[in-house]
Amino acid sequence: MTVSAVVVSHGHARELERSLPAIAAQVDELVVVANVPGSVGEVPPGARVLAAPRPRSFAANVNAGTAATTGAYVLVANPDAIPEPGAVARLAAFAAGRPRCGLAGPQLRWPDGSWQPSRRRFPTVSGTLLRRTPLRLLRRPYERQRAHYHLDERPDGPVPADWLLGAFLLQRREMLDELGGWDAGYRHYVEDIDLCYRAAKAGWERWYVPDAVVHHAYAAIIDRRFLTRHTLWHARGMLRFLRKHPERLLALR
């Protein structure tokens, strides 16, 4: 069982100074994709750097990094995601024991050690409007959408998930090959939801494995500010998702 890691950096050389050594120590192969010049500094021994020929979407860079690796499992990690010792091994061991586990995600924690809600339900139109418009000032998502974020659940063992934040995901290569990888048509948001949704439709399981712990800074720009380019990117991503999966227009939960 081999695990390859792909980390995409868009000007995050400073964050990589902390995360790459922690990731490299837990995987068999590490590829860092530099989306723009200056995105990567010094890397651990054995790690490879791929320079994107031009700035590409996150998903396109993930696909390029995946194609450059050979492991049975592909770990996709954000530059600001730092795994605790043994985290990757716990994810891989769990996935190895379930042949239909296509994705496994860890328990994410904020840098201060507090719990971060990374296991979520597939989005609905009404729920997305509440989270991504000024309506969230009246009905705060982390108070009113407790089911979406599983806020009242703190499982101490693996549990199924609709989707998991793409900040740190272990993926079975067989699943990626079947699905055709990540959808490079997403600019920067919703590609992780889309991957998990396509996996679900194809019969692949997605699991949250809390014994694996990863610390994640999580900028969460669209949770804090309205009407930025990130807001527009997210809106475009959700529209793409609904065009691809129009049945979600009828989803009520």
The poorly predicted ranges are none
- How much β-strand is present in the residues? 15-25%
Structural class: alpha/beta
Topology pattern, helix = H, strand = E: EHEEHEEHEEEHHHEEEHHEHH
**Overall geometry:** globular
Cα(first) to Cα(last) distance is: 38 Å
- Summarize model confidence as the mean pLDDT: 90
**Rg from C-alpha positions?**
17 Å
Number of strands: 12
Helical fraction: 25-40%
**Count of discrete alpha- or pi-helical segments spanning 4 or more residues:** 10
Main beta-sheet strand count, sense and barrel state: 10 strands, mixed
Tell me what you see in this structure:
A hairpin with a 5-residue loop joins strand 6 (101-109) and strand 7 (115-116). The chain is α/β, with parallel strands linked by helices and 253 residues long. The longest helix is centred in the C-terminal third of the chain and has 16 residues, at 229-244. 34% of the residues lie in helices and 23% in strands. It is globular. Strands 1, 2, 3, 4, 5, 6, 7, 9, 11 and 12 form a ten-stranded mixed sheet that branches. A two-stranded antiparallel sheet has the order 8-10.
